[in-house]
Task: structure prediction
Amino acid sequence: MEEINSESIAATERLIRPWIRRTPTVQVDGSDFGLSNVSLYFKLELLQHTGSFKTRGAFVNLLTRNIPAAGVTAASGGNHGVAVAYAAHKLKVAATIFVPSVASRTKIERIRSYGAKLVIRGDRYDDALTACKSWMNESGALPIHAYNDMQTLLGQGTMGMELEEQAPELDTLLVAVGGGGLIGGVAAWYAGRIRIVGVEPEAAPTLTKALAAGRPVDAPAGGIAADSLAPKRVGELMFPIAQTFVSRVVLVSDNEILQAQKILWDTLRVASEPGGAAALAALLSKKYEPERNQRIGVVVCGGNTDAVDFPAV
Result:
């Protein structure tokens, strides 16, 4: 099995570069967010194709694996499904996407817009995953896992490579955690060169529970960000990376996530979904208290939200 490290991530980045956007990193003074004596660097990955970082891993899978006649299939809270549907559309591959009922209207509409077959099953991600596995066995479609997959981790790690090129001065990076594909890939890229801090909803403490147990274990799967940050457990592949390279994990409440979502809009005019605002919530709530003169990266990982509503045209 290929190792997940800076060399393999750099090779992956070269492969998918024609298919992904180089998303911007915006530096702001911490005082704009009520934080004195710190510099903030927002990695605006919500500007990626399909509105989230998931596009990176989706293209790695479709470009490096043998696709059967039945095409590909994926289970998703929403963003992974959108990304797989988009990559399949671009590469002219059939896709069947399973999502739970908690998936947002925006994500469901985007999946359909790329021509994928959409199936809604159950209330949470793991319900959709069970249905997806049944379809895989029945149809022969290739499964694309949302986070527990070597190709997916390598793809998500390319965001870390891109961020280091844009902001080499960072000493700390805050990353929201669901199944752990993003933080696993990014932590593997940095490999201890900076402090990596995971941020999870209190209602879905998957990595927190896993680190306490010494292995991935089931955790609650609820909260305002349940369509992006609430699988039952983190991935087996990312867990040893997290044990080695993630400095700590902090928990934030739903209200703190909603507040961060609002402040991102009010301050930067960035329309983040709840999961995308979780990393900032750790700073605003003081669940993560920065040291003086810290240079902190904040990943805004997704923007598939209908929180900003425009009149019908």
